[in-house]
């Protein structure tokens, strides 16, 4: 109940502990003191997830039965401006208001001072989970996901917000038998909000390295184009089953800055040339060379879809198809704490960042890393990795299997331009809908 102490002597507080004792070493099973507690109008039912910033619970309104998700800030994040971060997340979301954006509708503070936000309860699976299961998606489903994602990002950018962490874990897909599939972009925890000092600003490198734009990696000025680059990484991964750059985290980051990505069509069959070209444009090193906006990219996508004339796909601008006869592999209720591949934090040494030309303010910065292969260890138990404060070799970057190494920019002029940037301080529903369900088998 709100007003009561959150901690019980002798009982570990799962919310405040990032490294809870493993069951085999714990003499007694830990009991989460927040379970059954009333927070505002909601009663906590069960823990459904955990991230670096907070622990997420399913909660219910006792009178009307409405369900919600409540994210409670980890105690250790209080000392690292986490309180401000959680509030910014809620503010960012409410500045946008789009069906493709997770709704945050309330916030509050626990008696011990930890803030919480009350959100729409998401059901479905993350794109990361879907890709883990399927490897890659077919062209039609990829186009649909991109269209939905770009629609949401268009609203994000029009609100003056830059998400800065578009990655497969932050894209939720949901599908029911009797309704059209939906996509939700989540986790605005490191979003850049207008006229606010966002956590991670002032030259700090924030994001998920495998999906980060070159300008984010350099710690330079980041705008909507950075999100578009991340969309390009997701598109590449959906189409080919792998990200364009492989290797250790530092190698991947160097490659994001320096290496030309292979064309998706060199890694998978059946990709239309125009889609190939759009993905490569999204992955341009220079923000100005990417599509002008999410909406502009979406228009290109519509033209691609129209040209594809995918059997069963609706004409562009038509009402979305209701996916009714598609085999559904996903549960309609999110299972409790699924073994999701989670991001984990890496502290990057100053020397590494200086190699990218990043102006270091605080000596070292944090960013998130999505592991290439799904760990089975829950995020809360995963160790914090520390990279050595030495500059790793930027090459070779291991290309995805089967392709020739592409170590550096083929276009010398482009490389020069990229290097000249160094150092740098510091809607609605879609007009496209997949005929193939999210839970259906991807074509080879
Ligand atoms: N609204 C929601 N509905 C259902 N589940 C959710 C919701 N929000 C978060 N989750 C679950 O909780 C997990 C952790 O949430 P989230 O990633 O937002 O936490 P976080 O602490 O902000 O993470 P990080 O800062 O490490 O990205 C998610 O992976 C998801 O499984």
From TrEMBL:
InterPro entries: Kinase-like_dom_sf, Prot_kinase_dom, Protein_kinase_ATP_BS. One of its GO terms (molecular function) is ATP binding. PROSITE patterns: PROTEIN_KINASE_ATP (PS00107), PROTEIN_KINASE_DOM (PS50011). ATP binds at residue 71. Residues 9-19 have a biased composition (Low complexity). Keywords: ATP-binding, Kinase, Nucleotide-binding, Serine/threonine-protein kinase, Transferase. CDD domains: STKc_PknB_like. Residues 42-308 form the Protein kinase domain. Residues 391-403 have a biased composition (Pro residues). Coiled coil: none annotated. Residues 1-33, 380-444 are annotated as: Disordered. This is Serine/threonine protein kinase.
